[in-house]
Amino acid sequence: MSRIIAGAAGGTTLSSVPGSGTRPTTDRVKEALFSRLESYEILSGAYVLDLFAGSGSLGVESASRGAARVDLVELAEKAAGVCRSNAGLVNRVLGKERVRVHRAKAETYLLRVPEGLAWDLVFLDPPYDLDEDGLAGVLQALTAHLAPGAVVVVERSTRSPEPVWPDGLERFSERAYGETTLWFAEPAQTEPAQPGDAKG
């Protein structure tokens, strides 16, 4: 059973995705991830994209913690239904429609992004059957839709290799939590970094 850990909707119990082939983010990993994101001061007012959203738990956690807009993208019918349920719960608590659900393939959704829409924070937790080339293609399509200073978080099994980062996106950190590794990336800097720029 998953829950929202903190923020305006903290403690809300979330529906989970039934079936196999998914890798739900544990509360332990989620807590560590959001502790780090809070230290970046990126959540308040952020535009957040949760690709391969599953139950949408990372996206709705972001909304609870102050994100201005959250887009959950999920192709599987049952999982998209769970996303809609969890989004509805959070939107009702917040009193605003901050979380939207899009049933689509990640690549297709990114090709249809409205001009001018850019995200400050992106989560990617791809299913087991998405190979490294497939993930690299999604990351490539994503680069055109990132705001300056954006953070991209890729969640993978510790047995998976580091993602292939496209031009325009570079890793700045990674953290392993048991069977899960989180990879952190940001838009590539076009100018020399200034003291204090590194997120760590």
TrEMBL record:
GO MF term (any one): 16S rRNA (guanine(966)-N(2))-methyltransferase activity
Region of interest (Disordered), ranges: 1-25
SUPFAM superfamilies: S-adenosyl-L-methionine-dependent methyltransferases
Alphabetical list of PROSITE patterns matching this protein: N6_MTASE
CDD domains hit by this protein: AdoMet_MTases
Enzyme class of the recorded protein, top EC level: transferase
Keyword field contains ATP-binding: no
Pfam families: Cons_hypoth95
Positions with biased composition (Polar residues): 12-24
Listed EC numbers: 2.1.1.171
Alphabetical list of InterPro entries matching this protein: DNA_methylase_N6_adenine_CS (IPR002052), RNA_MeTrfase_RsmD (IPR004398), SAM-dependent_MTases_sf (IPR029063)
UniProtKB keywords: Methyltransferase, Transferase
Keyword Lipid metabolism: no
NCBIfam families according to UniProt: 16S rRNA (guanine(966)-N(2))-methyltransferase RsmD
Name of protein: 16S rRNA (Guanine(966)-N(2))-methyltransferase RsmD
Species the sequence originates in: Arthrobacter pullicola
